Amino acid sequence: SLYVSEYFSQSAQKLSFYSWYGNAKLFHFHVPEDTVLLRWLLQASRGKGPECTSMEITVHFRHGAPPVINPLGTRFPANATVRPSYNISITLGSAVQNTTFVNVTTPAAGDWFIAAHLPEAAGRIEVKGFSTPCPYMFQADMFVLRLTDMPVLEPGVPMSHTVVSPAKPLHVKVFVPKHASGMRFQLSSCITSEQRACSVRVLLGSITLPQSFQRSLTCTGSINCSLALDSPPWEKWLQIMVESLGTANASVSLEMLASFTVCRPGSTSSFLNFISLNQSQAGARPGAAGSAAPAAGEAPRNASGQRGSCLQSQPVVREDLDVVSVRYRLLNGPSVPVTSLSPTLLVLNLNSGMDSGGSLVVNLLLNKTSVSLANATVAACVSAASPVLSLNATHNCSTAFSQGYPLSVSTSSGEAMLIVLYPQTDDWFLSLQLLCPRGQRDCAGAEAKVTVFAYLTPCFNDCGPYGQCSLLRRHGYLYAGCSCKAGWGGWSCTDDTKAQTVGTQNLATLLLTLSNLMFLPAIAVAVYRYYLVEASVYTYTMFFSTFYHACDQPGVAVMCIMDYDTLQYCDFLGSVVSIWVTILCMARVKKILKYVLFVLGTLLIAMSLQLDRRGVWNMMGPCLFALVIMVTAWVHHGVKRRHCYPSSWKRWVFYLLPGITLAFIAISVYAFMETNENYYYTHSIWHVLVACSVAFLLPPRDKHKKPWAWSQKLTCRYQICQNDREELYAVT
């Protein structure tokens, strides 16, 4: 056999501490057909700075869809199916780099996903630029060994082969036809080159993670051995590997045979399906209802004529709505007939390659008046690759190489729901059958009507009222995840273990909004001292900070008067400009120069905030530049007057020193103390401290200006003016 090795690589990604699925870095690979060996090369590294410490990286693997992970141990939504992902841990200790290999023999072809992340996030809010986080990098490369001429085992045709040695196993493949209800693999005429009884092991199927259902068969001696499989995967190549368990120098000759049992499906004819499809598309077109009436009456008679079939197939139309959003529509109506003779089958197509990044929701609703037996139950099973064609009371819902998801509805419990998180790329099947407690004879002639709603959605229930559904992207692949708020957690933000109460949410909103009213004293001081431009800036800041925090709340106490991004930008702009004009006002430069610096600085601040809104230098840059101007002006005033400026010790003790102290405390709280848990009161303290420091730091008014005298300013007098100039008119 000819083996070909291939290598696939993706660029390294910077890892993040985990708080929601968006923090996990996803790698998407495609394993080609006839691959006999898959090797992952995982490379992790960290920076060399003192802020870099030992770290454990968790890496998850899954075939067919992104891995479903739960590092925080939160609860999943009710009716959701969760199977733990296969994961390994990579530790970065004293070494700055770690290389790990993961081998998978006979892997399943198709999409494979790797997700990597750091431990749980600490929840501290870090100001960009104040601290340098340690970079942790991760890269995944894939090596595959592929057979270019893998022998094909034809169904029903015996094939003779030779296993050369235990080190060189034999690989063959067989194609499973559609509607195959069973497969039987038989091995015979097994003999070694030394004319002794052989010992071989046969592995059927491919390895899939997190769970692998590869079937093993050990044959010893020359007698025939066989293995029967129920519900093999339809329209797929099935790999078979035979390896010798004998001595190293002995070859093994054997004969293989694969046979299939194919059932005859019963369904409405394609012509009737075509009429139903045209009717649904035509809507209220004249004559459409009348033309479809005979078809509706013929469908039951056609189905009754197919009672000898092993399944009843119902036509389903896939309707793409948006990205990772699909609705499945039954052509014969939302209700499907379910009997005990054979299962009713619905095919849900999730083969586009872009459907595995959402959640598949299947909802069953039993029409209780349609069931004549009180104790009858409609058993259902949702499975991928192949349907479950034998539903019984044990209800294990398993196929040859996978485990399905069971459902059931009855007269006592008429509704059932199933949520499949990140369904694998494949054809999914919904099988339904009527079961009776005393046996299928009691159900003869009985029929149940079950309404089926099936759809694919990016996030189940749109993450609820305390979550936000985000569409994530890795190269060309799109998938969705929920980002939870107000202490809620879980895959769909349904875990209320750490959730904030409504009272706490109202308190947080009141603190963050009403704390901005502390700017009122600063505005009053500015107006009293004739600093009207500064007072206008403080009013602007107070207004937009109040309504930005009213809109920024994670819970139910939210009010947005305009777009969130606009409110955030105006809040950041007002905060930085307030600091800018306050320090320039303290500099006591000439008015014309002060107002020029006001306008020019505001324009530059607006530009820098548009480039990087959360950068620390957007605040520190204008502050430092304004402080340089202020210190230069104060030195100039001191040299000119030949004494310290400001000259009054009362000004220093009662105004400047308290204002500077409040400003430093505010910066310390803002930069080093804020976390996700204490944000609502630490940030409120920041509002109060900044507003109070502004009131203390504003300089006194100019000496030549008198205080506001409302009786003089707001006068109401009449003055009669008389123009004594004579006007000359020219008469022509």
Automatic annotation (TrEMBL):
Species: Rhipidura dahli
Task: Write the record's keywords in alphabetical order, separated by commas.
Answer: Cell membrane, Disulfide bond, EGF-like domain, Membrane, Transmembrane, Transmembrane helix
For whether the record's keyword set contains Transferase, the answer is no
The protein's name is TMM8A factor
Q: Which topology term describes how it sits in the membrane?
A: Multi-pass membrane protein
Q: Where in the cell is it found?
A: Cell membrane
InterPro entries given in the database record: EGF, NGX6/PGAP6/MYMK
Report domain EGF-like positions: 455-494
The gene from which this protein is expressed is Tmem8a
An example Gene Ontology CC term for this record: plasma membrane
One Pfam entry for this protein is DUF3522
